[in-house]
Amino acid sequence: EKGGYDSFMAKEIAEQPHAVGDTLLGRTKDDGELVLDELRISEDQLKNVNRITFVACGTAAYSSLVAKYAIEHWTRIPVDVVLAHEFRYSDPIVDERTLVVSVSQSGETMDTLMAVKHAKDLGALTLSICNTQGATIPRESDAVLYTHAGPEVAVASTKAFLAQITAAYLLGLYLAQLRGGTFADDAKAVMTELREMPEKIQEVLDRMDRVIEMANFMADTRSVLFLGRHVGFPIALEGALKLKEIAYIHAEGFAAGELKHGPIALIEPGQPVFVIVPSPDTPHELHKKVVSNIQEIRARGARTLVIAHDGDEDVEPFASEIIRVPQCSPLMAPLLTVIPLQVFALHLAMAKGLDADQPRNLAKSVTVE
Ligand code: M6R
Q1: CA atoms of 149 and 325, how far apart (whole Å)
Q2: Is the CB–ligand 1 distance for residue 156 below 6 Å?
Q3: Under a CB-based contact definition with an 8 Å cutoff, are residues 166 and 147 in contact?
Q4: Domain SIS: where (predicted)?
Q5: Alpha-carbon gap, residue 304 to 327, rounded angstroms
């Protein structure tokens, strides 16, 4: 059932173009207009939403963080992301105009389920982004938007992550469409880009030879750091989580802007640091800032493993290794930049002789609080 792959994780990584493509399927008209009648929430109710709170755990919380940047940009609705177990035991500001979006691959995560119940008790509108038809969380929610990644078996989440970003983007674009005017026009243009992503994801997958080689050389590595800004920040967190989870290596993700507020003290000669570089056309000089972060750590001896877009020459002087991904607009980049990190974690686990599908101490779905 692994379809010729060494592991379920390898198979699921390879299935990512389909996970995204199938999640988009049948949800737009030819002209790019989104049709989400399946949501079970009326247009009026959605138009009334003035605040969105995502609740999720682990990888699902990181896809939510990616979505926060996009949805706020497209809709100007404030979006928070709260770890489900923190939301549950806090006193969140939620009312009937708040849309609480839970994100869960399994739909059975107890922490997330309890957060959804808490949100309902507080009068919020609840929507579940879920990969498992008929699971408990979508049943407990007012509405559901399924991801169509297909069953995910490996404990480390990969294709569900990409599908979650896709579904959350659909939700954001739908809200933008409902707002009308330039919001709706912009949403249509983004939809066109989103539909091109499965092909670009495949292109990244076809380029992974060097990443695999790097992982094979790094079996003795004790610590890896990950840096990113904007949507690259949650990707840094996700890259670190994958490595902890399946390769048992100490790994930490930081917002690159935090470096000088502490973490740069960790940099010593030879320290491997992945840096996720935004595309050069990202607004607010973000690209320049990340390039200077690479320069700063390189000057202190870090081994800089840089994930950059095709054609970005600015990173070349400061990169120990460059992993290239196709060009795309800044908010689409997470669907590409996370892939080398998944592949790296998988192959490092394999190089250490570990079973990536079944890491110690972990279960695929965490059904206790
Ligand atoms: O099934 P869920 O998406 O609710 O699971 C949430 C987390 O437990 C899950 O993403 C976990 O962090 C993964 N093992 C990460 O790879």
Answers
A1: 22
A2: yes
A3: yes
A4: 42-181, 214-359
A5: 21
Q: Is 15 helix (H, G, I), strand (E, B) or coil?
A: coil
223-228 β-sheet, strand order = 250-255, 223-228, 272-276, 303-309, 321-325
Instruction: For residue 17, give the nearest of 154, 212, 166 by alpha carbon.
Output: 166
The pTM of the full predicted model, rounded to 2 decimals, is: 0.97
Is 342 close to ligand 1, i.e. is its CB under 6 Å away? no
| Burial class of residue 317 in the structure, from the number of CB atoms within 10 Å of its CB (0-12 exposed, 13-18 middle, 19+ buried) | exposed
Mutational test site, ligand 1, from 109, 147, 158, max ligand atoms within 8 Å of CB: 109
Interface predicted TM-score (ipTM) over 0.90:
yes
Condensed to tens digits (0 to 9), the pLDDT of residues 324-364 reads 999 999 999 999 999 999 999 999 999 999 999 999 888 88
Q: Which ligand 1 atom minimizes the distance to the CA of 106?
A: 1
327/308 Cα distance (integer angstroms)? 9
Residue 210 is which amino acid?
A: R
Own/partner pairs for 32-38, CB < 8 Å, 24+ apart? 32/188, 32/191, 32/192, 33/177, 33/188, 34/170, 34/173, 34/174, 34/177, 34/187, 34/191, 36/145, 36/170, 36/171, 36/174, 38/144, 38/145
Six-digit token string for 313: 């020459």
Residue ranges in 129-180 assigned as alpha helix (H): 136-140, 159-179
Q: Which atom of ligand 1 is found nearest the CA of 365?
A: 1
pLDDT in tens, 225-265: 999 999 999 999 999 999 999 999 999 999 999 999 999 99
158, 342 contact by CB (below 8 A) = yes
Q: Which residue from 88, 164, 149 is spatially nearest to 119, judged by alpha carbons?
A: 88
Helix-then-strand count for the chain, H and E: 13, 10
CA nearest neighbour of 24 among 149, 130, 157? 149
CA atoms within 13 A on the CB side of 257: 10
Which tokens hold the place of 93? 């500001």
